[in-house]
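Q: Fold this one first, please.
A: Sequence and structure below.
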Amino acid sequence: MVQNSYGDLYTGITNNHEQRLRYHNERRGAQFTKRDSKFELVFLEQHTTSAQARKREIQIKKRRREKKDELISRYREGSPTSL
């Protein structure tokens, strides 16, 4: 999950998060990322299959902002992140 300078969150999957973040900051990729070029990685999970990653992405996207903020806080603290 990345956050832009407006505080908006973008959730997606990738097999190379460093490259994906660079693309977002170059305003390449998703339409959402084209309006801003200051993104920071705020949450990351690794999964063994793309199907698992996609399922988790959908779960996270359905969550309210408060729950996403909890994930981000736990991630920054190094705590377990499942909600």
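Q: Good. Now the second chain.
A: Here it is, same layout.
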Amino acid sequence: MFFILSKILAFLLSPFTYLVGLLTWVYFTKNPIKRKKLLIASISLVFIFGNNFILDEAIRLWEKPLSETRADKYDIAIVLGGMIIYDAKNDITRFNSSVDRLLQALPKIKKGEIKHLLFTGGSGDIYHPENKEGILLARYLDEAGIKIDSLLIENESRNTYENALFSRKLLQTKFKDLSNKKILLITSAGHMRRSLACFKKQGLSPDYLCSNRIAGPRKFEFEYCFIPGAHVFSGWTHLTHEVLGYWAYKLTGKI
């Protein structure tokens, strides 16, 4: 139930949802004064939530710093899923921008900075729970000829809380004592705050490395500061999802 509610709330709190709602109201209203006010509100919403500069400043406050690493080598690196889009009809595994989580880990494995890699991710799809990311990734790596001898796969988790819970349980079956293991958590910068809190709640205290940051260098260019872009709305949806998820976990005792 929590899993489904989180999906619904993220949709309801998205600025794009409000924009569509306002424009729908404009279409059906018969009052010309109210229509004018609604149009002004819609345009204002576009300029506020379509503004790159405003979005970046908001995300900058939320994203964790790039990294907190206190060791040169780690016994275990935990990479969170959320990067695979599976096309079942054509049996094709595709990746979104979160694949940077894995790409940050691969060079470290190559250089011997990571001994064991744990990938944690089941299915976050309500309609296709059978498409488990862990299994899909393992198959993709095998077909691509990317061999990771110490790869561990956790493929039952559906959200960040379960990522942490099931990862701890899996690691406890592989290692007698986790207290002396150096662990590195790798996930997106905007997702790191909630992820880190979940793993600490499970008794793990990993260092962290952020991937695919959204907030780049602060810029004061005209187009960046004043011209709205449709793609910016997806950034607000992402930020809303993360902030909502963090406080929902806080209120339910998951962190």
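Q: Anything worth noting on the second one?
A: The longest helix spans residues 232-251.
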